[in-house]
Each structure stands twice: as structure tokens, then as C-alpha cells.
Amino acid sequence: MNSFFQLIARHRVLASTLFLAIFPFIMPYEALAINILIFGLFAMGFNLLFGYMGLLSFGHAAFLGIGSYVTGIAIVHYGVPWGAAILVGIIGAAIGGLIMGFLAIRTRGIYFSMVTLALGQIVYYIFYKAESLTGGENGLRGVRVDEFNILGIPVDFLNPLVKYYIILFFVVIAIWLISRILSSPLGAVMEAIRENEKRAAACGFDVARTKLLVFVLSAAICGLAGSLRALHLSIVPIDSLHYLQSGQAVMMSILGGMGTFFGPFIGAAVMLYLEDVVTTFTKHWMAVVGLVFMFFVLFFPKGIWGTILSKLQINQDSK
Amino acid sequence: MTGLSFELLCMQLLTGVALGSIYALLALGLCLIFGMLNVVNFAHGAFFMVGAFLGVYFLGITGSFWFSLVLTPLLTGGIGLVTERFLVRPLYGRGLDYPLLLTFGLSYVLIEVMRVTFGIEGLPSITPEGLGGTVNVGIGYFPKYRLFLIAATAVVILGVWFFIQKTRYGLIIKAGAADQEIVKVLGVDIAKVWLLVFGLGCAIAGLSGILASPTRSVNPEMGIPILAESFVVTVVGGMGSPVGAVVAGLLVGVVYSMTSLFFPDLAELSIFVLMAVVLLIRPQGLFGKAGAMG
Hints:
The complex is a heterodimer.
Chain A: H1 2-10, H2 12-26, H3 30-53, H4 61-78, H5 82-104, H6 109-129, H7 131-134, E1 140-141, E2 147-150, E3 153-156, H8 160-183, H9 185-195, H10 197-202, H11 207-233, E4 235-236, H12 243-256, H13 263-281, H14 285-299, H15 303-311
Helix pairs in contact in A: 2-3, 2-8, 3-8, 3-11, 3-12, 3-13, 4-5, 4-6, 4-11, 5-6, 5-11, 8-9, 8-11, 9-11, 12-13, 12-15
Chain B: H1 6-37, H2 44-62, H3 65-88, H4 97-118, E1 134-136, E2 141-143, H5 144-166, H6 168-178, H7 180-185, H8 190-212, H9 223-237, H10 242-262, H11 267-281
Antiparallel strand pairs in B: 1-2
Helix pairs in contact in B: 1-5, 1-8, 1-9, 1-10, 2-3, 2-4, 2-8, 2-9, 3-8, 5-6, 5-8, 9-10, 9-11, 10-11
């Protein structure tokens, strides 16, 4: 059992790819699997900043939303092909991350959480008010991608399973990138900053620049999640920019296990699956998720995956 | 801008002060809890919302605004006491993020509880008897209730100031915020002080909820935007500074109401831009001490 977990930890990108390849067949329907894929990526991007560098941002909905809106606007208003539209979405989110990060990293600790929350609300109101471009309160409608060719092979994007695997392609690239970042020297510096910021600075690392860099990287990954979500839903709801959406990334990370590689994805899967099941019984989903979240904060702060790892006494950072 | 008279500007300023009073109260509650316990209460907006609901409910069944004005903060304060004792206290010493996360989860639960109890539509807000209508303030007619709001806020702020600066308990609170180890050594049960301060902060949040209820619609989601706005006030004023909370609260209220006069579309945005500017020029906030933001 132990060596199995170590094997997974060693080949974490391969393991997640294999698992995600069969994932839609164990889920009740494909749309849920796609949703988990997208939010798993969102939570992983967020976890890069929160779990590995210790910065609790409450403004990451901004990047999910910017990614969605920029991709959506490019397709709806400018007729940009979907591949390029994803790229513009990522770039938009990264620029947003640069501006927000520049302001936010001037603060520390809980102050950082409050500032990112408030800065995220700026983005919310900007997109809310730019009605001619974004559709305002109703959201942006008509982000349509139907059929296209890849290397001459026609692909039907409306088929949910096909859609799943196309989105999976991008998610796997992002997971590989996250894995690379974490095992690089940059990843080590990030964890050093999380453990002791002053000591990291004393060792000669540029703390402010590392924070900003990771903030932008994390924003770009969340932006990709947003872009994919726009393609998946065909609309961009204005709620995707709200700070409650940021809170969802926080909850998923905690639920699965912050600062672990698979944790956020597991958190996203558990939370969205639970939501799917619970909402068929009751409309008071918010109370259920609130209580579950409080329970984890109080009794299982390491989350599902983190608790499993610590029970097996596996070093979470094993490469 | 033809027809924009001096009187109109003054009236709008007064409206801004009335709105700012609510912000000041909310930020003061946040600031008390933060200054003492190093906890940011993410359920502060939810306590505000609960206060508004209970306030309107008690006003409805008893018919007495004054009774409701006393009872509501006692109840939200009570919920605050329970929250601190059973939910926040186990998290001390586990990192500053955990109480924040917990109160965020709590806000979800409080919202849903109010939805179940009072329905998703919320309650119709009632202007208390005797405080309806307008009164001539020299430059024009101003809603009587908003004047009352400003006065009530002033009374509460003075009360808190008196409590902290002039009483024995205030002395302990101040000492506890400065150095909890020393206070413990001197034989004060600091856990009890924390409990009371958390309760006091939540009571003030509930009070601002009932005070605000006649001026806005009372629904389960009303605390969600107000949380972000009270964070703006806290950042502008400087974390942990009660004076900063009050001054920034009024400032943010005035900025909001002035922007809504000239550029109605940008009103919500304006206060966040104000915060961004403060962060650029003075990251510790107007009244915050440099280095006190760690």
C-alpha cells in the first residue's frame, strides 16, 4: 500500500493523466466530470499560491472570471478561433494577476486575504458595469464552439465525451507545468517562503519577486480554467467573478488537502459530486457545504488527501 | 453640471455620512476583534445580516424599535460568544488562517439559516415610528431616520471609546492587545477577555445591521457585499486602529455617495479604487502603524 502511494507520488503527472482518462466513466454524467476537471484545475492553480507559498488569496475568482470573459468576448465579439481565444484568456488573467499581485503583495498575513478579496471585487464591478461587452448581470451568452478539425480530423465539440477529452488535454498540460514548477528550484523557494519568509530573504532570495511571479503563474492557471469553463458552459455567468467563487477554491483546497499535489483536485471532485447529490434532496446546499467545511477546518485541517498521506507517513514533498 | 447647488452637495455629503456611519460601526467591530484576537471575522457580514433580520422581526412582533434595538445586539453578541467559545477557540495557535476560514464557513451556515427561518425573499424593512419623514436641516429636507442613524452611531462609538479608555475592563483589553503574556502573568483570565471582545464585536455588527435595516432591503444575501466593503474600510483606515476604522468608514461613505451623485455607474467601484490608491501610497492604511500589518 505504502509503495503504491510512493509510486503515485513519483509519477504524479502520469498517475493523474491515467486516472482522469477513465474518470468520466465513473461519474454519473459527463458534464459533472468536465466541471470537476475545470474546478480541479482552478483549485490547483489557487493551491500553488496558498498551499505552497502560504498566501491565502480571496480574490482568485478574478482570474477564473477574466479567463472566461476574455475568451468569451474574443469568440463572441471578435470571432477569434477557440484555440487563440484560450491563449488570450490566459494572457488576460496573467495581466490581471500582475496588477493585483503588485498591489496585494505589499501586505502580509490576513491583511493579504482582505486586500485580495477587495481587489477581486473591483474586477467584478468592472465586468458588471461593462454591459455592452460582457452582458452585465445576465452574463455573456453565445460562446459557441461546435465543430472543428484537428489535423484534418473533424471533432464534434458538442459531444460531451469529446469535449471532456479536449479539455483534459489542456488540463494535463497545466498539471505537468504545475508539477515542473513545484520540483524546480522555484518550488523550493516557494516552500521556503511559506515556512519562514525572513529566513528565505536572509538566504538571498528575492521574496517580493518570487511572490509576484507565483501570483502571476497561479493567476494564469486559474485563467486557463476560466477559459475552458467558458467553452464548456457556452455562457459566462457574472458570479464567476464574485468572491464567493474565490471562497470555493479555498474550500476545495482545504477539503482535499492544501499544499499537496492531488489534494485540491480531490477536494473539487468531492465537493462538486456532493453538491450534485445533495441538491437533489435539499435546496440548502450552502448550509451543508458550510458545515462540512467548518468540520474539516476544526478536525481535519490537512484535508482528505493530506490526512491519508500523514497516516501513511509519506513525505508530501517526495518528488 | 448645471443646477448643482451648494445645498445639494451638502445634502449628498450628509447622506454619505449616514452611510459611512454603518461602515464605521462595522469596521469598528472587525477592528476590536482583530486588534485583540488577531482574527479577521469573515462572518462579520453575516452577523450584520442576522442583526438586520432579528431587528426587523422583533420590531414586527413587539412594535417597539427601542426594545428591538437593545435585544438584537444582545442576541448577535450571544451568537458571537458561542462562536468564539466552541468554534474559534480550538483554532488558536494553529495559524492565523484557520479562524478566518472557519468564520467564512460559518457565514454560509448563517445565510442558509436565515433563508430557512425567514424565507429567501427576506423581510420588508420598516422605518420605526416617529423617525419617518424628513426634517429641515437648514439647507434642505433630510430623512429623519438618517439623522438618527448618525446620532446613534456617534453614541455607540463614544460608548466603545469610553469603555476602552476609561474603564478597568478597557484597560485589560488594551493591555491584552499589547502583550497577552504579561496580562496572563498578572493573573487575568485572557481567554475570558477574548470571549467577551469577540462577543462585543459581533454585537456591534448586529447593531449596525438593525440600524441599517430601514435604509436597505433585508435579505439573506445583504451581508455578502457589505463584508467586502467593510474590508475596504479596514484597509483604508489601517488594520487594528479604531480611530482609523471610524474615520475611514465615514470617508468611504462620503466617497460612495459623492461618486453616485456625479458618476452613478461608478459608485460601487469608487470605494475599491480608493482602497487601491491607499495601498499604493500608504500600504499600512491611513492610521495604521508601519510594520503592524504582518
